[in-house]
Specification:
By secondary structure, the chain is an alpha/beta fold. The protein folds into 2 domains: 202 residues, Quinone Oxidoreductase, Chain A, domain 1 (Alpha-Beta Complex), CATH 3.90.180; 134 residues, Rossmann fold (3-Layer(aba) Sandwich). The model has no long low-confidence stretch (mean pLDDT 97).
């Protein structure tokens, strides 16, 4: 089969590799119908995630059809169309029993495209299949379901839920890329008074308005704008959705006393935490890796059209156009790419 391999910082190839095989009784093999590229994949290619070794197949998001299951898999069968979660769950360890699947101690967590081969391939082995795959209803398209592999539950859980968004809040989302847009869309479920999107790129600010932001502003004007609209208090919730020091520090400067800063971005460099300014302000700062515990609920909302996700996809490619898709997604400022989706021909 063909797959996208990481060969060290800045090096990737689309090449022939061996087909995946069942290694454990709880495994399944999924024939990939659709996959996508995540900002985390770009961090890996920059060298920000040193645990990813040369020769790894990247990718942790997909929709596909099961071709084979292990002897311990009972609830899934060959031919089932499934959503591949970016998080795998052993279901037995302390964290999995609490629903914190991202922190799995039993061989799960974020492993696909990280510690084991991932989904940017024609087929993929999925560990702990019954707790890491979700059957996709017939009325939900591959493209719509694909957005629930990672970005929508990440924006919702790590941004909106960790940020404790409540009715009437002023919510600021710094970074209007796919994760930031997912946070904007799902924050709307909690009826905030206003959502403010902050980004450098005019095209992304336009997308933020389309996804539900009430106000859009560049970072240079953000503190003054938020101060003016909140009577000098600051935002109730600031969601960091970029992963660079400047955006985290901006979020810290935007929240009111008693506010929440929810970090979602993947950071590859140290960040300054100005406790000399924050120690007396009763702020809550959260970090996190998505657990995907919300995926069944989000999939149910997608099925009943209470949630839509296809609008995240801005560019579509064939699976064998993986290198072109990476070029488009990497240069999002020029291409206005949100999510790219790649489909089996």
């Amino acid at each position: 089969m063909k797959a996208l391999l990481y060969h060290g910082p800045g090096r990737r190839t689309w090449e022939e590799v061996a087909d995946p095989t069942l290694l454990e009784p709880e495994d399944a093999i999924v024939r990939v119908s659709a996959t996508t590229i995540c900002g985390t994949d770009l961090h890996i290619l920059k060298g920000d995630v040193p645990e990813v070794t040369s020769g790894r197949i990247l990718g942790h998001e997909a929709v596909g059809v099961i071709s084979e299951v292990g002897s311990a898999v009972r609830a899934l069968h060959p031919g089932d169309r499934v959503l591949v979660s970016c998080i795998s769950s052993c279901g037995r360890c302390r964290y999995c029993r609490l629903g914190s699947y991202g922190q799995c101690l039993g061989g799960g967590g974020w492993v696909l495209g990280h510690l084991i081969d991932g989904t940017q391939a024609e087929s993929v082995r999925i560990p702990f299949a019954e707790r890491s795959l979700y059957t996709v209803p017939e009325q939900v398209s591959d493209e719509s379901a694909l957005m629930l592999s990672d970005i929508v539950p990440t924006g919702f859980e790590v941004g909106v839920l960790n940020g404790n968004v409540r009715p009437g809040d002023t919510v600021v989302v710094v970074g209007a890329g796919p994760i930031g847009l997912a946070a904007i869309k799902t924050a709307r479920l909690f009826s905030p008074a206003r959502i403010v999107a902050i980004d450098l790129a005019p095209s992304r600010l336009e997308s933020a308005r389309d996804f539900g932001a009430d106000v859009t502003v560049g970072p240079d004007d953000a503190i003054a704008t938020i101060g003016e609209m909140t009577g000098g208090l600051g935002a109730d919730v600031a969601i960091e959705a970029v992963g660079v020091p400047a955006t985290f520090e901006l979020c810290a400067g935007l929240i009111r006393p008693g506010g929440h800063l929810a970090n979602v971005g993947v950071h590859g460099a140290p960040v300054s935490l100005h406790l000399e300014a924050l120690w007396s302000r009763n702020v809550t700062i959260t970090t996190g890796l998505v657990d995907t515990s919300s995926t069944p609920m989000l999939l149910s909302m997608l099925t009943t059209a209470q949630l839509t996700t296809a609008e995240f996809v801005s560019h579509r490619f064939g699976l064998d156009e993986m290198q072109d898709a990476y070029d488009v997604f990497t240069n999002a400022a020029e291409t206005s790419a949100l999510k790219v989706a790649l489909f089996r021909g």
